[in-house]
Amino acid sequence: MEEEDQQKVSDLIKELVLRLLSQNPTSNPHPIDRNSSEFRNSLRYAVRILSSRMTPSITPDASAIAETIKRRLATQGKSSQALTFAELYTKFTSKTGPGGVNNKWAVLYLLKILAEDRKAAKTQFDSSVLLPNLALNDAQTGINSRVSRSLGSKDKGWKNGVLLVSKDPENRREIAFREFVNLVKEENEVCEEVLVRDVLYACQGIDGKYVKFDKNADGYILSDLVKIPRATRIMVRKLSELGWLFRKVKGYISESMDRFPAEDVGTVGQAFCAALQDELSEYYKLLAVLEAQSMNPIPLVSEKVSSDNYLSLRRLSVWFAEPMVKMRLMAVLVDKCRVLRGGAMAGAIHLHAQHGDPLVHEFMRRLLRRVCSPLFEMVRSWVLEGELEDIFAEFFVVGQPVKAESLWRDGYRLHAGMLPSFISQSLAQRILRTGKSINFLRVCCEDRGWADAATEAAAAAGTTTRRGDLGYGETNALESLVDEAAKRIDKHLLGVMYKQYKFKEHCLAIKRYLLLGQGDFVQYLMDIVGPELSEPANTISTFKLAGLLETAIRSSNAQYDDHDILDRLRVKMMPHGTGDRGWDVFSLEYDARVPLDTVFTESVMARYLRIFNFLWKLRRVEHALIGAWKTMKPNCITSHSFTKLQGAVKLQLLSTLRRCQVLWDDMNHFVTNLQYYIMFEVLEVSWSNFSSEMDVAKDLDDLLAAHEKYLHSIVEKSLLGERSQTLCKSLFVLFDLILRFRSHADRLYEGIQELQASRTMESSLSSREKSKLLRLSSDKASEPGSWISDGRKALTQRAGDFFRSMGQELDAVAKEYSSLLEGFLSQLPVQQHVDLKFLLFRLDFTEFYSRSGPGL
Amino acid sequence: MDPDAAQTARESLDLAFHMSNLLDTGLDRHTLSVLIALCDLGLNPEALAALVKELRREPQLSSSPPTYAVPSSLP
Questions:
Q1: Does residue A851 lie within any of the structural domains?
Q2: pTM flag (> 0.95)
Q3: Size of interface A-B (CB pairs under 8 A)
Q4: Residue A357 domain boundaries
């Protein structure tokens, strides 16, 4: 069987060779003789070829080969033929069984190769393609040379090397491309791929092979020694800027991280670093993707040319556009914030966020949200709980340890340096006040009810009392939270002050006692304490005075007052020197305890004291004059007892009396009007203003301000202010004068009474009783004005002398008084306070003084 | 050969000839049939293709005498 096959094969081969030779167009025109040497040679050659390869180099897969053929047809543009071929193939493969072709794949493969070769022969591109699988060894070089020689003689303009077929544009383009590639390779010492990789390294802060960081130039530069065209150099330089920026930002972050343990960097700084690191991790992701890309070559349509890498420097610059902007922003911020901390840092970053570009805006917003979260947290905890958790001194509210009474005024204050610019000054004030109120309530009032108020406030503002609800960009939310909290806490605080600590009542009590509003009490007190106070100051005992105070309270309407208030009222003896009388050092004081002493501080109480002294002095003068009036009752002086006097003496008596009366009247008018002015125009008016302001006060600051105003107006209007100091001095001189007058008047009337007594005695008594009386009265002989020892004549003379002297003294007093009063009144209109004009009006109601004195 | 087989063979040849025309191989029917027969007998199609190519382009085969020894045995 094999023999048969062999014979068949050889026959077929012969047949084939014959036919092929005869087919050959350049062969001899006559038919080939089987026995010609040509034929025999060809046959031998054919056998040789056939025996040289036994197994095919491809897998016998008919469908794959068919597919390949189809695709080739399609790519050549002969799609209809491809379809026809597909049809034919399917029919061909269906022909199985006897008579059918067994090795269909072989047939197909054969056809394929023949077609390719024929096509290639037509184009005659490359000699090496013609016989792709022919493995010629040295022994067959003869054939090879013969082949090449025969090929070479083919007259189709085929030459070794580059083909110059001008009609084929595809070829020229490809050739030109290859030339260019070679040129580029010559010029660049370093290929672009390496540069791209170096740039990517530089952008992560790592020195590449050619691109290194130069400390002197402070940048990533390409060494000049490397041969690279200028354009590329410039591009590399531009891209390395990103690396420089990255280095700066990373340097700042690592520096801050090093300083963490030293607690030099605050929470805001830490948040800033964290936000920067997040941005950098995004950046790293981008770089990782780019690095992966730089390894992949892009598939090109033309496979004949070596392709560049996917990532070129130009592509890199496009990719880096956005990260460059972001990195630049970060570097600028890093520079700005290197020395700042806390709220100042947040404020500086906020200023940079005012930018129109949406990319920048979005980026800054994200960053700021992270950076400001510690700040907002601090605000939240301060406003809702009064807690100041500020280890690094970054918050704009600064607390100091002070005593309870000055907690409100000095305990907390705003630190303007740490106030970020997106929190306005008024908002900051409100924040400060709210937290202060909570602390005040907690410390001074020992009240816990504010916690409810705080949660209510938070609920009303839409946030909760948990952490991390507020963020940057929600300044409105923060404001509303602060407002709600402030409203509620203030209300609560005021409620506590009014109800629990009875602020209003205490103020009223102070007014009634310290400012001598409780008239009957003051009267009794003056009556009782008066004689005591005439003694020198160091002999007076406070304890005794306290007892007298108690008596006064009990005997007046003050006894119906609240015990708590009465307990606080005490006598105070001011520090005194020798020669001081009790009048100068006596004062009352009111003990205001926590928390009311926030309002009634030491300085405030000192002012009250001053006012009290003034009012007390005024009262004393008034009291003195009233006392004088008591003795001046005309009933005491009945004229019939003086009928026996001589006319001259009587006249003197009457005139003295008259002068005394007139002077008294003058002084009384003055003092009364002054008293009324103080009482009604100053005290009551100020008090009603203060009351109405207390009703509308929204928080403790308002209350304090109102009280301050109240006191200030009192001080100013009652001539105790700084501007009225001269006036005040003249007023006190007047008071002293009036007191002197009182003593004169007392003496006068004493004298008159003695005279009267002696006269009645003389008329009614016997000599014996007279002598007894004389003896009794002889003890008083040294006293002036005792004239009983003398006889009638002496009596008259004495009376005359007495009256004369009294009259002179009274005259002196009167003159001094009128001049002083004039001086006082002339100074009044110059005063700036408008209410003093009312005083002048009252005093000079009838224009008596202005008409009499030229100065007015 | 029985008529069916002959029919099949003829049709197969027709199809193959059509395909070869499509592919522009330049083979005529007779040559193709010989080639198909040789393929069916198990010869390497690559070798056959090479042979065809060589013999086609070999006008001066007779110009130089062969200097090689022809192997006496056939595969």
A1: yes
A2: no
A3: 207
A4: 347-499
